[in-house]
Specification:
The chain is of the alpha+beta class. The chain contains three helices and eight strands; from the N terminus they run αβββααβββββ. The protein is globular, with a radius of gyration of 15 Å.
């Protein structure tokens, strides 16, 4: 049986996280109440599966990894707007214009590789 997302996060937090030889200090953002998870779920085209609901109650995001990692996408303002990804839920950005977005497909029963994907949108700028 695969570990839950919460178990994967707990295992990562229990280990020494290092990037470029330097320790990474992470802080979990407070989890949501069951009522807040329910409200968040109603705002989405696809309700979160039990694993994601459990994660949201454990923590709503992480400080200390990317510029911003917010599993609810609320800190991104009005959200991710793109015609090619109308159900996109932004969950992370790196401060350089790159975003990670969960593609929520209406009618899907799960979030994951079989029905939706997490994608990265890269912002490129050209200088002449």
């Amino acid at each position: 049986m695969c570990p839950s997302t919460r178990e994967v996060m707990q295992a990562a937090l229990a280990s020494d996280l290092i990037n470029d030889g330097k320790p990474i200090r992470v802080r979990l953002l407070p989890g949501l109440t069951i009522e807040e998870v329910d409200e968040f779920s109603q705002s989405l085209p696809v309700p979160p599966p039990d694993d994601v609901r459990d994660l949201l109650q454990f923590c709503s995001g992480i400080d200390g990894t990317l510029e911003q990692l917010d599993f609810t996408g609320k800190s991104f303002g009005h959200g991710f707007e793109a015609d090619f990804l109308p159900g996109g839920l932004p969950i992370a950005h790196d401060g350089y214009g790159n975003q990670w977005v969960v593609d929520l497909q209406p009618g899907a029963e799960t979030w994951g590789p079989s029905t939706s994907a997490v994608m990265m949108r890269r912002c490129c700028s050209c200088r002449l």
